[in-house]
Specification:
single chain; alpha+beta; two-stranded parallel sheet; 2 strands
Amino acid sequence: VEFIAVNTDAQVLRSSSADVTLQIGSNVTKGLGAGADPNKGREAAQEDRETIRQALDG
């Protein structure tokens, strides 16, 4: 099993023990996270949907 951590917050990802970490939405959030705003989270995922798809495809 390979774990993938996906987050908008770069600092949180640095402390992750997941096999793969993906920071998404760096243009939307400037790397600071979505601040629990679901709309920003959605925008971040849409911004990096291809990166997410590639990670899931392995």
